[in-house]
Structure formats: C-alpha cells, structure tokens
Amino acid sequence: MSIGEILFDIFPEYKRIGGAPFNFAFHLKKLGIPVRFISRVGNDPEGEEILSEIERCGFTTEDVQVDNTHKTGKVNVKLDKNGVPKFDIQKNVAYDFIEPDQSVLSTLDSTIDLIYFGSLIQRSKCGFESIQTILANRNPKTKCMYDINLRPDCYNKDIIMESLRQADILKLNNEELETIKQMFGYKKETNRYVEYLINKFSLEMVALTGGYWGSELFLKGQHTAHRAVKINDIVDTVGAGDGFAALLAIGFLQQWEPQKILSVASEFAEQICVIEGAIPDNDKFYDKFRYIITDRDYIN
Q1: What's the number of domains the chain is made of?
Q2: Which of 25, 71, 156, 293 shows the greatest Cβ crowding within 10 Å of its Cβ?
Q3: Residue 184 counted as domain residue
Q4: Which residues are 78's β-sheet partners?
C-alpha cells in the first residue's frame, strides 16, 4: 500500500501526473505487484483527470478521496542544465487533508505486507495526524517504508521523529541525511549515524542514495555499496528516487541479497533518468525488470 500525495508536475513545456507515493505505486503496478494507492484530489477538472488516469492504470478510484473545498495539488518544476529539478509546491491542497476514515482503516489488514509513506503528505497538521493514525492502526505484521523526501518548508522535527518511530525501512539521500544530522545535532560520520538510527528506531534497513556517486544499503551489522554508472543521455532526474524506492521495496519483501537490491534498484532509477518525468509512457520499459522480479532470464 502507498499513501500520500498525487498531483500534477508542471514542467515548462508539458505536465505529468506525479507525487512520490503515486510514482512508487505506479511502478509496482506495472511490475505486477499488487498495490493500493490512498490519496485525495480536488473536485475540479485536474482531479477528474487524475481519477480517470489512475483508473486507466488499474487502481480503484474508491481509494482516492474527493475534496470539495481544496484544489488538486500542483508542483511547478524547473530543471537545471543537468536535469536536476527544483520544485515549487502549492500548499493547502487536497492531499493535505486525507481523512483516516473507515474505508481507509478497513484496508489495514494482514494482507498488506508494506505501507509506503513520506514527509510531504504530513506537512499540514491534518496530514500529519491522519498519516500517523493510519500507521498506528496497521496490522503488526505490516512493515512501513519511510521515503523521507524532504522538500523546503514541508517538514519539521516532529514529522521526521514520529515517522522514524513507525518505520522499518528508511530511504533517504546524502543531502537529507546531512539535514537530519544537523537538525538533531549529531556530528559523527555518516556510517556511525546510520548505525545510530538503526539502533534507536529498530530499523531493519536503511537505503542511502548519492546520485552520481551511487547508493548504499545498511542492515544491522552489514553495509553494502554500489557505484553508479555514468548516464550520457539524461533527460531529467525527476522520479528517479521513487523508482529506486519501488525496487527497494520489492527486494526487501522478496528477501534479495543486499547487492542485488542495490544493483537492480539503481539500474531502474538510471532508466527513469533517460525519460521525460517520472512515469514511462511505454510498458516495455518494465519488461526486463519483470523478468528479474520473477527470477527469469530476460531476452532483449
């Protein structure tokens, strides 16, 4: 299950449906993994467009609430010369007001293996309380994956601390790690701080991404690193982290070896970087990774 924002990413020349939780859920759906997506849109043309699109993608619209007061979320995206995005995120939009009503809480049974959530959905008091209520009511067997995704003016100490308490898996990048180190006044080196987080919050896995450098995976008493390959034809890096998170979740649930998790998740994220936006237009994009997930040989 994925809970959180769905919105329109507005690029200078086009727009795309986005939001990390939706991107995550979309990838799982296309890879053949059962997934539900919980969110909220406005009662407006953009909301209608999103509902039509997610239904076309195979999600049930019953899991997406419709808000008669607040508009559907939008993000203005500007890319630098390297395709790295800068986000201008509209506030007080529909996804900030997800309600933990009975239709949501009734889905939290033992069939849910993992819940994916982030920080942005918790930026409002309502959103924070709703997400924490949902997580607190999950089945004890259900794992939680916190994809920290820090956006300017969209997080605080309480959001991060309470989310870490709920998490079994943490995904973040180097900049986000430095941010929370500074926020909590921790001055020790990266590996020691990750070990501290694992022990303090009983985390089973921490994934640390470093863009052009590569990625690392930490389990209690175990550390694995993967060097990134150079990508010559980058279009933009929007959604690369969400793609990485999707394969990270699959690898965790299927109990892959750490090196395989990093290798496959990194390759998937790299392929996201050579398309426009976070979501592929062609399902063939997923063919190789479907074979990997089902442990079959891929013939291109």
Answers
A1: 1
A2: 25
A3: yes
A4: 86
Could you tell me if residue 300 is inside a domain? no
96 occurs within a structural domain: yes
Q: Tell me the CA distances in angstroms from 290 to 33, 56, 297, one per residue in order.
A: 10, 20, 10
213 sits in the region (left: phi over 0; alpha: psi -120 to 50; else beta) called: alpha
CATH of the domain at 289: 3.40.1190.20
Q: Considering the domain boundaries, does residue 298 fall inside one? A: no
**Digits of tens for pLDDT over the chain (300 positions)?**
999 999 998 888 778 888 999 999 999 999 999 999 999 999 999 999 999 999 999 999 999 999 999 999 998 888 787 777 788 899 999 999 999 999 899 889 888 999 999 999 999 999 999 999 999 999 999 999 999 999 988 999 999 999 999 999 999 999 999 999 999 888 778 889 999 999 999 999 999 998 678 899 999 889 999 988 877 788 878 889 999 999 999 999 999 999 999 999 999 999 998 888 788 988 999 999 999 998 766 555
Handedness of CA 121, 123, 129, 132 (dihedral sign): positive
